[in-house]
Structures are given as structure tokens and as C-alpha cells.
Amino acid sequence: MQPHASKSNHETVDQLNSFLRGELSAVETYRKALTKLESFPHRPMLEECASSHQQRVLLLAQEVERRGGQPAKSSGAWGAFAKAVEGGSAALGAKLAIAVLEEGEDHGRNDYDRDIDGLDADARQLVAQRLMPEQLRTHGTMSRLKKLLD
């Protein structure tokens, strides 16, 4: 293998792991929100978004492993969002949790948009065709839900 190709794979694995940390954090944030919102009438929407992020975790971990890398195990940038959901008072409840989830979805979308060009062609295709459409869908779901609660 050429040194340049190896470096490119290494950079791609690092970026995929960055995306993976974000997805792990999203899953953690949704789990915390679901724990707080047991009787929330729109709970199935949250469960579906959490499931989508979990699928992305699996896809990213598999891709990192396929490339010879070690998948990230801990969460990333959404960690602050998870802490906000966990720390939010019961009085603020659903409205705060949904606002925090939507902010996290914004953050995830922006990460993919900003960093997709740092990937090699195969990984860019994975992000563009499988991850981004799901990210845009879950972002749209949280945006609609936030508007419903306003």
C-alpha cells in the first residue's frame, strides 16, 4: 500500500470515529430523554429517532472496523446535550428535552456537512447516501415536534 493511501485511510478512520462519537452521544441523549418522558404522547417519534441513531452507530463502527480501525466507544459532542436533558427539571419536561434534542440534531447535521469532504470517496458515499438522509430525517422530526410543543 502506498503511504499516501494509508494516510488517507487513517484520516478517514479518524473522521468516521468522530462521526461515531457524535452518534453514540445522540443515542445516549435520546435514551435519557426517553427515560424522563415515559408518558410523552409523541414518544414513538423519539424512539424511532433513537433507533435511527443506533443504526448509524452500527454502520459507522462496522466501517471503521472494515478499514482496520478501532471504533470509538464513548460519546462526543452531543455529550453536553445529554447532560442538559439529564439535568433539566421535570417542570420544563418535554419542551426542554425536545429543544435539546433538536439542537443536537442541528449539531449532527452540521458535523456531517462540514466534515464530509475530509473522507475518501467510499466513506463520502456512505455518509451521503446512508447517514445524511437519516440525519436530515431525524432533524426534521425533532424540528416538527419542537414546533408542535411551542
Report on this model:
It contains five helices and no strands. By secondary structure, it is mostly helical.
Helices, strands, pairings?
Blueprint lengths: L2 H34 L6 H24 L12 H9 L5 H23 L5 H29 L1
Q: Which features does this protein show?
A:
single chain; 150 residues; mainly alpha; Ferritin; 5 helices; disordered N terminus
Q: Could you describe the largest sheet, including whether it forms a barrel? A: none
Number of helices: 5
- Secondary-structure-derived class: mainly alpha
Unreliable segments of 5+ consecutive residues: 1-6
Measured by DSSP, the beta-strand proportion falls in under 5%
What is Rg? 16 Å
Could you tell me how far the N terminus lies from the C terminus, measured between alpha carbons in angstroms?
55 Å
